[in-house]
Amino acid sequence: MMKKVYGVIGDPIEHSLSPVMHNAAFDALGLNAIYLAFRVSKDDVGDAIRGAKSLGIAGLNVTIPLKEKALEFVVPDALASRIGAINTIDFSKGTPEGYNTDGLGALAVLKEAVGELRNKKVLILGAGGAARAIAFYLDSEGSILTIANRNVARARRLASALRNAEPVGMDELERRIKDIDILINATPVGMYPREDETLIDAELMHSELVVFDIVYNPPETKLLKEAKKAGVRTLINGLKMLLYQGAASFKIWTGMEPPLNRMEAAVREALSVRTRP
Ligand code: NAP
Predict the structure, then answer these.
(1) How far apart are CA 244 and CA 231, in angstroms?
(2) Of the listed 67, 120, 222, 240, which one is catalytic?
(3) Are 9 and 62 in contact (CB under 8 A)?
(4) Class of residue 130 by CB neighbours under 10 A (exposed 0-12, middle 13-18, buried 19+)
(5) What is the set of domains in the chain, with CATH numbers?
(6) What pLDDT score does 277 carry?
(7) Which of 4, 37, 78, 128 could be joined to 33 by an S-S link, Cβ 3.0–4.6 Å?
(8) Closest ligand 1 atom to Cα of 131
(9) Average pLDDT over residues 92-100
(10) pTM to 2 decimals?
(11) Which tens digit of pLDDT belongs to each residue from 232-268?
(12) What is the position in ligand 1's atom list of the atom closest to the CA of 187?
């Protein structure tokens, strides 16, 4: 039987540990499949999805900055369509079908760390594909959201689609963060190779905050380092979210239970190699 090909499309893409994670899962289950990373620019996303279908690619993940644009080239399920962004494409039925597993992954992580999310005041940095997914899930949980984005019009668009969310510009952060319970970074600021950048530093944070940076490479971002300095005790990086969203994509593609332990071990191993001096 021919090997099944899966992959992730995005730009930048070198940072992605999805190939390591999914190839470990294929290995663990003895599947004849491979997962590759493809650099695709925003202008080429339609061609890439059509091309993938023609080449018989079985499934794709979609990452920065393509999650919203890619929606135009797939048949999204109801959830992805509400969110307005996809991170997973399944080609098994001929037409490319779009799903979003990012919000599910982030919610699982937050519930593990925080428990009840109803009435929690959450500040989300970013209003792109990942931020949209997380915001939709938290809004359904009854959290009270503030969406801060560099491009405020984008934050306004997202907030207007939610029940309880207020859009703000980055200049409002200092004033807003005092009352916040949970801070989530859903921008690439701090991601490899620009690891010394953060949108918020220690002086602005209070020790009761929960700080969740969805960036997983490096595992301890500048934002998390600053949070530590401010005495924050609940620090979460993007590793578990990567794992949970990836596991959900894997299930959509294969119908099989993902080998979570093997996937997590592969990601941790890759990160320890990459961050070694
Ligand atoms: P995206 O759709 O391109 O959105 C990027 C967002 O970040 C936008 O809101 C953008 O603001 C903002 N941004 C970009 N550069 C910025 C800067 N220099 N200063 C301030 N804001 C900036 O990307 P995405 O797909 O949502 O991904 C965002 C990040 O999350 C990436 O690092 C990605 O790897 C990570 N991620 C992790 C997981 C996980 O499983 N752990 C899952 C999904 C995504 P503007 O609108 O103003 O441009």
Answers:
(1) 28
(2) 67
(3) yes
(4) buried
(5) 4-100+240-275 (3.40.50.10860), 103-237 (3.40.50.720)
(6) 44
(7) 4
(8) 26
(9) 96
(10) 0.96
(11) 999 999 999 999 999 999 999 999 999 999 999 999 9
(12) 7
